[in-house]
Amino acid sequence: MDGRVKPGHDDGEAERVEIILRQRPMTLSLETRDLTIRFGGHVAVNGVSCSFRPGELTAIVGPNGAGKTTYFNLISGQLTASTGEVWLAGRNITAMSAPLRTRAGLGRAFQLTNLFPNLSVEENVRLAVQAAAGVHYDMLRPWMRRTDLIARADAILDGVALGARRRVAATALSHGDQRKLEVALMMALEPKVFMFDEPTAGMSVDEVPVVLDLIARLKQDPTKIILLVEHKMDVVRSLADRIIVLHNGQLVADGKPAEVIASPVVQEAYLGVARGKTAA
Ligand SMILES: Nc1ncnc2c1ncn2[C@@H]1O[C@H](COP(=O)(O)OP(=O)(O)OP(=O)(O)O)[C@@H](O)[C@H]1O
Ligand SMILES: [Mg+2]
Question: pLDDT tens digits, residue range 191-247?
Fold first, then answer.
């Protein structure tokens, strides 16, 4: 099947299908083609070709140093590939800067470098919402009257369970709350692709569910692509629709969670289980 529909149907169905097929390249897709980066002699990401689909949460797993964060950096534009390409929604974005990729819909939760440290949690989220809405300072229409944007910032704060900490200066937050604020700032930008790199790392046990619930809620939107780097296999099992495994910079497994977790390459290379045994 070449994706084309023969003309000649008289019920209009063919025409409708043809229109849908023509539109398909415009739907959201993210793809890396033979993506590679070398640091000196070390190939940190090595020829990774992979497509990500809307409505799917892909967990990216692999041992420390496997290249997971570097792969994210190549997708979001913090690093430039040595060779290979990144495609978003049918566009080759390999040469695009990180800020332009953000505007194109790639959302990445960062350590809080884009933060205004002395402003409150609430002010930071409001500024991010404002930036995403493209609202500029306007004497005639002060920010405080933009109740829609204020409501959106409030909803985001509640979504990451930071409502009670809203008046606290961003720098005064605990480590776990700072991670939640990172996620809040990403949410504010309303990305099409959500990239989480170990979002619960360093969080206390009672803080973890807030972030996992939020990711689970995001998953219900069938138009979003979600990528999650995660070491904790129980988290991966509960959230992932698909798992890809990176090992020494290479993509060594890709499939449904149960299949990938049971595969010999994961059992041996990643989970460190001897041949013939199965990880719990
Ligand atoms: N800017 C850099 N310069 C040189 N080497 C780098 C750079 N960034 C990453 N590396 C190397 O690339 C390899 C992959 O690192 P990366 O951080 O992507 O691994 P990871 O899979 O995210 O590991 P972890 O699970 O520990 O976070 C490592 O050997 C790392 O030392
Ligand atoms: Mg990493």
Answer: 999 999 998 888 888 888 988 998 999 999 999 999 999 988 889 999 999 999 999
Q: Which helix (H) or strand (E) holds 60?
A: strand 56-61
- What residue's CA is closest to ligand 1, atom 24? 64
Residue nearest to atom 16 of ligand 1 (CA): 67
Nearest to 203 by CA among 230, 168, 225: 230
Q: Contact at 8 Å (CB) between 37 and 74?
A: yes
CA distance 24 to 46: 29
- Let me know the angle formed at the C-alpha of 238 by 162 and 75, rounded to the nearest 5 degrees: 75
Strand partners, 51: 31
Task: For residue 134, give both structure tokens.
Answer: 């493209």
Residue 229 burial (C-beta neighbours within 10 Å; 0-12, 13-18, 19+) = buried
pTM of the model: 0.84
247 lines ligand 1 (CB under 6 A): no
pLDDT digits (tens, 9 = 90+) for 178-205: 888 988 999 998 999 999 999 888 888 8
